[in-house]
Amino acid sequence: MRIVIDGMGGDNAPQSNVEGAVNAIKEYGINIVITGDKEILEKEFSKYDFDKEKLEIIHTTEIIENEDKPVKAIRSKKDSSMVVALRLVKEGYADAVISAGNTGALLAGGLFVVGRIKGIDRPCLCPAIPNAKKGMTLIADGGANADCKPRNLVEFAAMSNIYAKKVLGLSNPRVALANVGIEEGKGNDLVKKAYEELKNIDLNFIGNVEARDVINDYTDIIVCDGFTGNILLKSAEGVAISVMGLLKETFLSSTKGKLGAMLLKDDLRKLKSFMDYAEYGGAPLLGVNGGVIKAHGSSDSRAIKNAINQGIKFAKGNVLQDIKDFVVVNKESEE
Amino acid sequence: MRIVIDGMGGDNAPQSNVEGAVNAIKEYGINIVITGDKEILEKEFSKYDFDKEKLEIIHTTEIIENEDKPVKAIRSKKDSSMVVALRLVKEGYADAVISAGNTGALLAGGLFVVGRIKGIDRPCLCPAIPNAKKGMTLIADGGANADCKPRNLVEFAAMSNIYAKKVLGLSNPRVALANVGIEEGKGNDLVKKAYEELKNIDLNFIGNVEARDVINDYTDIIVCDGFTGNILLKSAEGVAISVMGLLKETFLSSTKGKLGAMLLKDDLRKLKSFMDYAEYGGAPLLGVNGGVIKAHGSSDSRAIKNAINQGIKFAKGNVLQDIKDFVVVNKESEE
Questions:
Q1: How much is the ipTM here?
Q2: Which HAMAP family match (chains A, B) (predicted)?
Q3: Domain annotation for chain B: domains and CATH numbers
């Protein structure tokens, strides 16, 4: 098993990527390939003591920046750490790729470099958000496809269901449609039609979920178009960050508040870490013909190591083959 | 000026409605008409000392419950407190109606009893959510229309802009489109087309806003389809409630936590009240030919009084006439 890391991608590159790779080699005993500026990477790796046999550095000369236009960057920066890493998966040299770089570019690279699985119309990005029961909930699609057809939502459901079983270890993931009410027949045209189709697919479809209940562990997977998924995720994130800010402000506004906050310091840190979704590893891009994991842009070494572990489970669990099997079954049922 | 209150609508009916009406009579000196069971309402009003000349009770025999199917309820319960209240606005006897009852029924009643303003394709519901700068942000549409055309979003923008000026007193409201990124050209087909049209309308259009920034006072008005508006609102609400729950749990889990929480009791109460959007009064239904304000289902007397004040400002500000003027100008610019 080989996992490839886009060495230069992410806000804390290459440091976090290198430290995450070292810790993954130590903890999981796997082989890591890393792409990027060889000199810089070698210097960074020289800080650590680990089994050098398990590391391969592939020199690349370009970097895709956050400001780059995704499709253009993938097409023009052929020797970037991201494109080369994706190509190693495409060519079968590595089993999965981890990148904390430009999200749009990774989505475009998934499509144009790795390629779609035949029979899947649109790949989806599946980030996980923490819920109040200290578990997590997958959003499929979390933002790859702004406009969707009912068929796309059905594929998102099937693919994320496989991922939840094989990578997250859930035996019978609950799958729900993001909607404005829980009753059947609610919502816009897209979700009404998708609801009908989801009833006929072999998965644990529990119906609709309202956005306010997502955090209450109502479901393991939320199916929606990528526009809705983005709104859902970002709205939750914005409020969580703001409430922490307000708390801080409130606590610092009086001596009594400061004293109280001092006593609660450890508890507040726990709360903050719960709400920090960067801790929950990366988001898989499902539906492309290889393992592609998007790590959060601000990933620290722990997030990178967690994302590598996701890549390992993705490969070991044969997620790709299961998705291909779904395509066959789904096609047969349509005929 | 006369404001009519659906006396039997809401979780705390009729108590909160009656107390809110009494306080509005005292504070604003206006005439209140209230619909509902006369005997029950008279008994409730007898608890208060106020100018009885300013109150009129109109007896009704039916109540629309939260469980009732909206359209069916409006059509079959003709003598309900809600339908009769709406009719009083339709007939011009009252200037605006306040209801804390079944939201779907009020939307249906707005359309079928009060009727649309000619030239407005779809009315929208405009709830306000608190932002972290202690102001509020209007969501247009907050849930009335699951499927929208670009034209609808333009109308939502124009109508909520008028409301923000006349009722909220903003001189030049900022209007933004809910989107997955701030750059022009982002998003689904609907928002891309709406963006183009909004550039050509006479209002302070500031472009796109991401859901994570809504709470940061980025804009005064967020324009979106009702499906997106519902997801945005409910996701924020769910997280805010959950975080408060987690805080409570965290604080009660240790002696130190309990001590700290005791010191912070007043501050936490302030924070909770900030996040309680019921405090921010009601949501207007814009685009129907009369003032219709939806108060939160769990409204207390203060929320009802605030909603009555919104109704007064709605009528005094000639919001309806301004919307009709927009229709004329907009039509001319299309010709």
A1: 0.90
A2: PlsX
A3: 1-120+287-335 (3.40.718.10), 130-278 (3.40.718.10)
